[in-house]
């Protein structure tokens, strides 16, 4: 498999570049992440103007924080699901449920984060083909973490899933876990199964290590009782 996804490590979260005839940027990190992404592009000889599209997997501050500056830097169109886009335009974080004490503490600490109002160029409700932006793949609506979460599935099986899952590399194998924040666990499972059925092989997530399809299938089998 020819790898097309390039990971941009921003600390607590990741953004991703997809390399095709041009580039697509997936997520923009926290507000302070803009300079890190810009430096990554410069270091790797990537012209920001070669980024043809910015995809936001969902409307949480650690994924949309640098969007205004990245829009200005690249001139690229910004794509998000309509549900998420409506919240983003209002400057409101998309609501979720929490399933652990740790998650509740994070929600308390990050209560009502300041999200700058932003209007995306492309609001989608269903799948979206990326061929016109120079990449062989599609954006897929994968609700679960939030109602309007998106994933990017490339023709080679590489898949960017935002906060759908997290992964932990244990040297000999990788384990996959559900996020500790979600909107609907049944939707989340259904979205994962749908990606697998469409040929997803490698899962790039925003808060953990890369997972393969075997670790994802093991997760679905092991955690049916949640």
Q: What is the mean pLDDT?
A: 91
Instruction: Give the helix/strand class.
Output: alpha/beta
Report the β-strand fraction as a percent range: 25-35%
Strand neighbour order, sheet with most strands:
1-2-3-4-5-7
Order of helices and strands: EEEHEHHEHEHEEEEEEEEHEEH
The total count of strands amounts to: 16
Number of helical regions: 7
Low-confidence stretches: none
- Estimated helix fraction: 25-40%
Q: What is the approximate shape?
A: globular
Distance between the termini: 34 Å
Cα-atom radius of gyration: 16 Å
Largest sheet: 6 strands, mixed
Description of the structure:
This protein is of the alpha/beta class. Helices cover 28% and strands 28% of the residues. It has 7 helices and 16 strands. It has helices spanning 33-43, 61-64, 67-74, 82-90, 101-109, 185-197, 213-222, and strands at 5-9, 14-19, 23-26, 51-55, 77-81, 97-98, 122-124, 128-129, 137-141, 150-154, 158-162, 166-169, 174-177, 181-182, 202-205, 211-212. The strands form 4 sheets. It has a 6-stranded mixed β-sheet with strand order 1-2-3-4-5-7. Strand 2 (14-19) and strand 3 form a beta hairpin. The chain is globular and about 45 Å long. The protein starts with a strand and ends with a helix. The model has no long low-confidence stretch (mean pLDDT 91).
How would you briefly describe this protein structure?
By secondary structure, this protein is of the alpha/beta class. The protein is 28% helix and 28% strand.
Topology overview:
Blueprint: E1 5-9, E2 14-19, E3 23-26, H1 33-43, E4 51-55, H2 61-64, H3 67-74, E5 77-81, H4 82-90, E6 97-98, H5 101-109, E7 122-124, E8 128-129, E9 137-141, E10 150-154, E11 158-162, E12 166-169, E13 174-177, E14 181-182, H6 185-197, E15 202-205, E16 211-212, H7 213-222
Parallel strand pairs: 3-4, 4-5, 5-7, 11-15
Antiparallel strand pairs: 1-2, 2-3, 6-14, 8-9, 9-10, 10-11, 12-13, 15-16
């Amino acid at each position: 498999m020819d790898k097309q996804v390039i990971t941009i490590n921003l600390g607590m979260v990741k953004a991703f570049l997809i390399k095709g005839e041009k580039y697509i940027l997936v997520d923009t990190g926290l507000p302070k992440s803009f300079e890190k992404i810009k430096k990554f592009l410069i270091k790797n000889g990537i012209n920001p103007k070669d980024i043809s599209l910015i995809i936001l997997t969902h409307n949480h501050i650690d994924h949309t924080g640098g969007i205004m500056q990245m829009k200005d830097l690249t001139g690229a169109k910004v794509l998000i699901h309509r549900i998420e886009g409506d919240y983003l335009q209002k400057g409101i974080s998309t609501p979720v449920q929490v399933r652990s004490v740790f998650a509740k503490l994070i929600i308390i600490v990050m209560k009502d984060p300041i999200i700058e109002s932003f209007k995306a160029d492309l609001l989608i409700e269903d799948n979206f083909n990326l061929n016109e932006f120079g990449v062989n793949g599609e954006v897929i609506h994968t609700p679960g973490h939030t109602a309007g979460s998106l994933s990017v599935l490339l023709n080679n099986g590489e898949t960017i899933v935002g906060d759908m899952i997290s992964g932990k590399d244990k040297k000999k194998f990788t384990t996959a876990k559900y996020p500790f924040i979600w909107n609907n666990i049944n939707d989340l499972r259904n979205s994962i199964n749908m990606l697998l059925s469409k040929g997803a092989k490698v899962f790039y997530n925003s808060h953990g290590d890369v997972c393969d399809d075997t670790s994802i299938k093991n997760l679905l089998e092991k955690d049916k009782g949640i």
